[in-house]
Every structure is written in structure tokens, then in C-alpha cells.
Amino acid sequence: MAHRAGGRERGAAPGDPRDPGALAYLRDYELLVNSVPFPSAVFDHRWDVVLANSAFDALFGEVGAHPTAMPDDNFLRFVLFHPDAGRVLGDHEASWCLPMLAHFARAVEEHPKDGVLQSVRREIARDPIMEAAYRQGLPHWLRAVGQRAVEHDGSVRPLRHPDPRWGHTHCRVVGATPRALEGMGYRHLTLVLRERPRRAPHGSRRHLRAVPAGG
Question: Any idea which fold 5-193 has?
Fold first, then answer.
């Protein structure tokens, strides 16, 4: 199957691409993803982006080109390897990189013969800092924070949006994967942005007034 919100084609997805029912479901699901006002995307087990909306593209619209780690191609590679990832994803190491490494470790365990995941593993091994984080830092972090901190759904994480209306803010990661989508090997995540509180106009602050004594 070749599928991507906005009309751009994606690579082959898990499952049987010849299943007309699955294709019809994904085309309708694309309409749902596009209707979400916040950055929203569907990923496969490798974190390849299957569907994504315009808000997702806008969030990462200012990152530079990279041959293998663009956010609308593979989100795992973007988080781990793109030099601009920390410009968008706040508290990059603790809030984004370590949870993604934990998900990657789980994916490798569940799909040990997956060539794409193995290529990511080799790329991690070539980077001494990333390899140390994977082999030593990740187990220590998991013991300290617990397995619950790994899950994306429900977590609140900092980010920087290029739109000044959002700017430096936080997002609530919301996972909403229906059974049919999960059965195809996909997951759906939405980053619900928290708008920054607006400052009151100058001179509009309320002042306490003297209250006359009764009598």
C-alpha cells in the first residue's frame, strides 16, 4: 500500500496491501486524521509515517533536510538522529529520546528479523554516545522512572512550535488506535498542544479598592 495524508505516497505497509477492505478503511481514516487540528499521525511498528496531517507537517516545517531521518518519513530516526530534533522536541533526551529508545528496544524484541529495525540498531552502535545511552543509560532510566514513563499515551512533553502562537509549549500525547487499525500493525498518536496563556493588556490589571468601614 502507498498512503500518506496530503497525497504524498508512502512505502509498503505491513499487512496485505491487496485487501480492498483495509485500503478503504485507511482512506477513510485519512479523512479523520486530516480533520484533527493538532499534529496527528499514524505509524507502523518501525515508526514509519503512514498517515499524517498538515498540522504534523507544520510542527516540523522548519527542520533541515536529512537523508534518512525526516519526521514525515520515520519518526524514530528523526528523534534519534536528526540534528534539528532538539530544536522542536524540548528536553530532547529525557522526554523524547529515552522513551523512543525503549519503544525501539521492544520493537526489536518483537521483530528480531526486521531489516529496517536492525539497520537502526547498527546506526545506534556506530555512535558511542547513543550506544552508551541504549545499553547503559536506558536500563538505568527505566529502573528510575518505571515502565509507565515509557508510554507515549497520556504523557506531557515540551516542544517548540514554529508558529509564535504556540512557541515554547507542551503537548499531551494522546494515543487513540481503533481495533481495526491496530490489527493492521499501526498506532495513531496526536500531540494536543497547550496554548500559552495570553498576557493581559497593559494597564488592564485590576487593583484593590479601599472598602469603607461600615457604620
Answer: Beta-Lactamase (3.30.450)
